[in-house]
Amino acid sequence: MEYSDLIIFVMEIIGTVAFASSGAMLAIQKEMDLFGVCVLGATTSVGGGMIRDVLLGKLPPGIFGQPVYLLTALGVSVALFCLIYWKRNLFKGGFAPAYDRVMLLFDAIGLAVFTVVGINTAWGAGYHERFLPAFVGVITGVGGGLLRDVMAQEKPYIFTKHVYACASIAGALVCVLGRGILGRLGAMLAGAAAVMLIRFLAVRFRWNLPRIRGFEQTGG
C-alpha cells in the first residue's frame, strides 16, 4: 500500500467512525434499542458509499467486499451505546447540550471525509472529468446522513440548517478543481478542510439559505 493510499484509508476509517457516532447518537437520543443504534450507526456510515457504488455501477457495493468499514461502524455504535448506558453521569448537564456539540463535530468530520473519498472513488473508476466526481462526492457525503434522518423520522438536516449540503458542494469543487495543482492527496485534504471550515463557520454565524416561513396551504 502506497503512502497516499494509507492516508486515504485512515481518512475513510475516521469518516466511518465519525458518521457511525452521529447515527448512533441520534438513535440514542430517539431512545432506540441496541439494534436500532447499530442499524442507524451503520446506515449513516456506509449508506452514502452504497449509493455512490450503485451510481458508478460498482456491484455489489464495496462494503460487501471490504467489511472493515461496516464492522468498524457496528463496533463504534455498540461502544457508544455501552458508554452512555453505563456512564450516564457523563451528561450531568443534560444530554441535549452534549448531543448538539458531538453531532456537529462528528457530522462535520464525516461529511468532509466522505465527500472527498467519494470523489477519489470516482477517479479510481476512471471518471476524471469534473462534474461526475463532484456529484458523486456530494452524494457520498450527504447520503448517509439523509438516510439516517429519514429512518429516524427527522426532517433531513441537509435541507434545513447551516448550508450542510452547500458545504459538501464547495469542498467537492475545491477538490476537483485543485487536483491539477495540488495532486490527488493534496486536493482531497484541501477539499475536506474546506467542508469542515464552512460547516463550523455556518454554525458559528448561523448561515442559512433563504426559506419561506409561515406559509400555509389553504383548501379551495
From TrEMBL:
<keyword id="KW-0472">Membrane</keyword>
<keyword id="KW-1133">Transmembrane helix</keyword>
<comment type="similarity">
    <text>Belongs to the UPF0126 family.</text>
</comment>
<dbReference type="GO" id="GO:0005886">
    <property type="term" value="C:plasma membrane"/>
</dbReference>
<dbReference type="InterPro" id="IPR005115">
    <property type="entry name" value="Gly_transporter"/>
</dbReference>
<feature type="domain" description="Glycine transporter">
    <location>
        <begin position="105"/>
        <end position="177"/>
    </location>
</feature>
<feature type="transmembrane region" description="Helical">
    <location>
        <begin position="188"/>
        <end position="207"/>
    </location>
</feature>
<keyword id="KW-1003">Cell membrane</keyword>
<feature type="transmembrane region" description="Helical">
    <location>
        <begin position="6"/>
        <end position="27"/>
    </location>
</feature>
<feature type="transmembrane region" description="Helical">
    <location>
        <begin position="163"/>
        <end position="182"/>
    </location>
</feature>
<feature type="domain" description="Glycine transporter">
    <location>
        <begin position="10"/>
        <end position="83"/>
    </location>
</feature>
<dbReference type="Pfam" id="PF03458">
    <property type="entry name" value="Gly_transporter"/>
</dbReference>
<feature type="transmembrane region" description="Helical">
    <location>
        <begin position="34"/>
        <end position="51"/>
    </location>
</feature>
<feature type="transmembrane region" description="Helical">
    <location>
        <begin position="131"/>
        <end position="151"/>
    </location>
</feature>
<protein>
    <submittedName>
        <fullName>Trimeric intracellular cation channel family protein</fullName>
    </submittedName>
</protein>
<keyword id="KW-0812">Transmembrane</keyword>
<feature type="transmembrane region" description="Helical">
    <location>
        <begin position="98"/>
        <end position="119"/>
    </location>
</feature>
<feature type="transmembrane region" description="Helical">
    <location>
        <begin position="63"/>
        <end position="86"/>
    </location>
</feature>
